[in-house]
Amino acid sequence: MNTKVELLNKEKPNMKVLEKAGKIIRNGGLVAFPTETVYGLGANALDDEAVQKIFIAKGRPQDNPLIIHVADFNIEQFVKEVPLIAKKMMEEFWPGPLTLIMKKSDEIPSVTSAGLESVGIRMPANNVAKGLIKEAGVPIAAPSANISGRPSPTEIERCIQDLDGKVDYIIGGEKCNVGLESTIVDCTVDPPCILRPGGITVEMLREIDDRVYIDPAIMKKPEENFKPKAPGMKYRHYAPKAPVKIITGDLKKSIAKIQEIVQNYIDANMKVGIMATDETIEEYSNAIIKSLGSREDLYSIGKNLFQVLREFDDEKVDIILSEAFDEKGMGIAIMNRLKKAAGFDIIKA
Ligand code: TXA
Ligand code: MG
């Protein structure tokens, strides 16, 4: 192990560790830390050299802007204006898994916003994240703490796996509560547009403005002339090493179809992983079978998704077959990540 790792209790994080981590950020270093969504790879958002190190550590394309993380509501200095709709969303959902895109001020270096005139801001709910930002005394730019393209880490072990030796400090310890990255809402346009679905659902946002809609490009296979508005959503993403296929349709038929496909792969001498649910896990055989959780509780499915994808990497499966979920509520965010992990390889049962 090359990078120092410090385990923290998120209810009562050790202040000495947070002070040290905050100092590293202030001095231009990199710290991986937990949030309620996924682990983040943080640097001082106002220091362009520090932010540049994030892109290098992750192997991230330079045209993909970073979200900045704050610990209080005084964001006026980072944006041209806070639109009324953004204010309402902040009041309702911050701290929490919601990133708001606004027009950026000159305080935000262009490397942070990848040359865009806008910036995404969020206030995380996790105490370690909040404490770190307060100690740093600066906003923290942080993408998910994974090597670009891999599933985001929801456990500290996965952070270490991807970033050991590439960052100055790794802090955390507990599994992330939400397990999927924050919902991103573009507040520079009217009506506001969801660029990435997450733990704050479209239904919840429509309580504030019933015109909120989801960027139609993100649930579909990327095609020319139909590009997602969040630059990061165009890349193949969230992908384990093995290819993923999603089987959609009536659940009973899907189970039968998955079993049929499993047999074909076994005949070809391949090791198959199946992403099942508590309700269906008993139906399968002849594969490495893992449950994402109960279909009755889509939040638990979201929480486990990236972890299970990475476990299949550990098992060195050759192919992963996944059940599908209804695209409602949290199901929208789950299917968005699954489809991207699968490169939109979808089979209708
Ligand atoms: O939950 C999260 O948001 C996590 C944790 C660490 O806070 N962070 C995260 O960051 O998911 P990242 O960099 O993996 O994803 C940020 C996404 C990318 O798809 C990026 O293109 C988009 O946000 N984004 C950032 N700034 C943007 C902007 N100004 N306009 C449009 N999209 C933006
Ligand atoms: Mg990411």
In short:
By secondary structure, this protein is of the alpha/beta class.
Description:
This protein is 29% helix and 18% strand. It is α/β, with parallel strands linked by helices. It folds into two domains: 4-219, DHBP synthase; 244-348, 3-Layer(aba) Sandwich (Rossmann fold). Helix 6 links the parallel strand 10 and strand 11. The radius of gyration is 20 Å and the shape is globular. The mean pLDDT is 95. The protein binds threonylcarbamoyladenylate (TXA) and magnesium ion. Magnesium ion binds next to loops. Pfam families: Sua5_C, Sua5_yciO_yrdC. It comes from Clostridium ganghwense. Keywords: ATP-binding, Cytoplasm, Nucleotide-binding, Nucleotidyltransferase, Transferase, tRNA processing. Its EC number is 2.7.7.87.
Describe the structure using short key phrases.
5-stranded parallel sheet; alpha/beta; 349 residues; DHBP synthase; 16 strands; globular; Rossmann fold; binds magnesium ion; 11-stranded mixed sheet; binds threonylcarbamoyladenylate
